[in-house]
Amino acid sequence: MEEQSVHSSISDINSEEAVRSEPMIIPRKKRICLIGAAGDDPALGAAAQQFSVPVLKSETGLEHIEDTSYCTYFILKKFEGPEYDALHKSAHRILGPTALLQLAEKKDSLPSISRPMYTQAMVGTVVVFTGFRKKDELTKLINMIHNMGGSIRKEMGAKVTHLIANCCGGDKYRYAVTFRVPIMSMEWVTALWNAKDDISSYGNNEELIATYKLKPFFGAKVCFFGFPDEEKRHMCEVLHQQGGESTEIDDPNCTHVVVDESNVNALPDLASVRAHIVKAEWFWTSVQNEGAADEKEYLFEDYLESVLSPTISVRRDSQQAATPSTASTRRKRKRLAETLSSLVQNGADSPALHKRRSSISDAGHLSVSGSFLDCTTSPDKPLLDEVEAVNTDSSRKNLSPRHQVFLELVQTESNYVGILSTIMTLFKSPLEDLIDTTGELLNGTEAKIIFGNFPPIYEVHKKMLEELRYSATHWMEDISIGNIFLKFAPDLVKAYPPYVNFFENTKEMLDQCDQNKPRFHAFLKVCQTKPECGRQSLKELLIKPVQRLPSISLLLNDILKHTSKNNPDHSALELSISSIKEVMTYINEDKRKTEGQLVMFDIFNEIDNCPPHLVSSHRSFIGKCDVMELSEGLSGRGDHLVLFLFTDTLEICKKRSKAFNSLKSPNTANGLHTTKLSQGKPYKHIRMLSLSTIKKVVDIRETDECHKVFALMVRSNQELKEKLFSFTITDEEVNKTNYLRTLCRQMANTVCKADADTFLISLDSHQLEIDTSDVALGTLSKAFKSLFHNFYLEYMDPYVFLLNSMCETTLHVPLPFASRTRMKVGRAFSFNKTPSKLKRAMSTMMSPFGSTNSLTPASQQLAQMRLASCNNINELGNGGSGSPSRDDVLVAPMSVQPTRKAKCSSLSMASLRRNCSEEVMQDKSDL
């Protein structure tokens, strides 16, 4: 009764407005009058001038009410107060400042309106209300809508654009859900009214509508009954996101009980009599449609009635659900519970009980391959009646083993085509039909990635099934089964590789859409409850084509075992099995190539300064090998490199070590030393070798000192002689022989040679002067120097300051371990204008060990240090006797003194000591 009074108030308001405006005679001449503060707004004044009508200004406008020679448009900034009420009752029209600005912006004429309009935010909007119980609340909303240019209707119709609801139910709500009329909350109106001064705010804004759409479970208190704990938690999360509230089954305010029909076989006894007991499909359908579905179509009682017996009829209508339960209803529920209990006790083998599959019952229906193909419902089951007529236990005894296996093949193929048909009709077609509509679940690109490669597989198996059925109904022992598969082998080759190769992309896109699109997720859940899906997800169904060809191969092999060699089908079966294996081999090879090309993009993104032409459609990735360089031609002896082998190219990169390469030059501003970690890519491009430029691959014979070493002889067309690059493999999992043979095979393919062994030769290490004895020493030296990094930074500044004050040349001192050879040290220290003697003196003066091993203060140590190019004038006067003796001079230890680099490719320990001794003697003579 209360809602009827609310609806009557809507009609009363509309009729009052109509009666008030009917006797008014509105003249054709128009003018604008800016009231109060509106007259002081220059923007409003400029907008009023655009309409080419007289523009007046007034404090109240009351003096113009009696002037009926003009139709005056009063512009007010406040739609309240005595002045507003007086102007509202007159025959003239009222506009708000926002409406005037919007009209001027769109260059529209002054509208013929019967109600005051502050803004045009809801012009063209036709609204119907449902579920509101308070008249004052509804009256306030109606006035807001009218003042924003909207109109209101009592009943739903074709012209209604929006339904404003305060509940999720009723005839108007069902109409809106069926015809996809947006169902809005009352906050939509209040939000528009709060933004009434914004000229860009309109009610048809898609973002605004999405924000204030009424959630499908608004006001509902839902209990989930019989679901596994994980699924129940997930459904509760979705419920809260969609405006509902979860509760327990004994809550008297519970509005809905959602039952997992696969685990529950009786009506919950503790459910409230006012609660709707529905299947899980109701919940997910509501989420998908963004509106609560009609409970009468998803009642759990109706489901029980359909799966038990036609004689059991216990159905509640909507009126009984909304009223207290009668004694008759309780008796019906009790009889239903007793019937269910007796059926469970007597077993589940009753022909009238078509139970959902459980994991136990499924096991008996599995085929030889262990799949669900034998128990999946086929959409064209009646077409197999003739085949199944001979597929009973009694008749199978009279069939030959060959015939029995063939019938199993036909059965599994029929079920497989049924699965393909389910994907096409239940998933693909509905999703594609919704593309570019308001109810779109997937866009065209997403649907193409998921289903684009699927239809060819369905078409070829559908045609193949027809011929298999024909052979089953016209069975003869010499009928050729193999020729059927040979006939469709070319179509299988065309259909399967694109699907299998990009199946990972399909799964990735499916997972992404499932996580990011709630309505699509609900659509998948709804489909999963359908009996034709067998409670399998779309991802589980989409993997069936990947598994089908191996299953066919096994069944054909089984048929071949029961086929005599005299049978004409024997040779055809052998050929068909070979063709199926060829298809699988082709798929695997094509899949490997595709994966290699995808990996190539990942490699490119991990290499700093990688050449762009590394990524090519004709190139694919073969393998990766971690090595250490033993030569000096690429990065440097002892550097850790990575070789990325492609079909025609070898990409050589330097592996950036976290211990060394992450440390950058210190920032010594204000005496503060900071160390930054590099956030770059893990590899640095060194060189990209075409396999055609590699002339020979040298396998260095294994010795105690030379392990897993090989070399490459390289010469390009632009080079006059060969270059030798030697490496040792550091990856324990890489077999050197296999890797070198793979490399030679790719080289042979590049230059179109059949024999790859011609590129591989074996030599001893001494023949190429390859030595690995000092590689570990160089690596250890780097690690040792890194330990003293902070020590150098702390004691470097005083020495540099002293040297700069003593010498005209400014010294730029870098990190002590930044170089490896004497050439690099000289370049790093910037000694371009300094004599070589100063270099040797610097190595003595910058020793970090003098101050730690002596008790002499640092200031006295600095005073004792002398450069060969600098003398004290007082000491010169004394005949140079002031030069300190050898015992007084601080000498740097051998480990930090400069050494000469030998020209050979390797250094033994003896030669290293000899060179160091020569440097020390030279230093003595120079100093």
UniProtKB/TrEMBL annotation:
Q: GO MF terms on file?
A: GTPase activator activity; guanyl-nucleotide exchange factor activity
- SMART domains linked: BRCT, RhoGEF
**Tell me, what's a Pfam family for it?**
ECT2_PH
Which intervals hold domain DH? 401-590
**PROSITE patterns (UniProt xref):** BRCT, DH_1, DH_2
Question: Domain of life, per the record?
Answer: Eukaryota
Cross-referenced InterPro entries, in alphabetical order?
A: BRCT_dom, BRCT_dom_sf, DBL_dom_sf, DH_dom, Ect2, ECT2_BRCT0, ECT2_PH, GDS_CDC24_CS
Kindly give the Gene3D superfamilies that the UniProt entry links to this protein: BRCT domain, Dbl homology (DH) domain, Pleckstrin-homology domain (PH domain)/Phosphotyrosine-binding domain (PTB)
- Residue ranges annotated for the BRCT domain, each copy included: 117-189, 212-300
Biological process terms from the Gene Ontology for this record are:
intracellular signal transduction; mitotic cytokinesis; nervous system development; regulation of cytokinesis, actomyosin contractile ring assembly
Q: Name one GO cellular component term.
A: cell cortex
Q: What is the name of this protein? A: Protein ECT2
Q: Which organism is it from?
A: Tetragonisca angustula
